[in-house]
Known about the structure:
Number of strands: 0
Oligomer: single chain
Helix content: over 70%
Amino acid sequence: MVILKQTWAVLAVLSWGSASAAGTCLPPIAPLMPTDTDDVRAYADLLRRDAETYFDDVEQYFRCQDQERREVFEQAREVSEDYARVLEILGSDS
């Protein structure tokens, strides 16, 4: 039982560290869109560029999240297999 508690403690520490490392996808910052008609006309080119850049960044963000999801899913599968082996060993020790 002591080994199991120690294993859980180690897994908790490791998962906490990997959770913070996994958050590498940063959401884009929405561009400021003025409501004043004169400002919209005056800065039309800049507003178009900012909006297009934002939408490109949104696509990149979603692709990043998809990639991270695939990586974490694979990691979870591996940990599940490893944990099943741990339980098998612990079951045979009883």
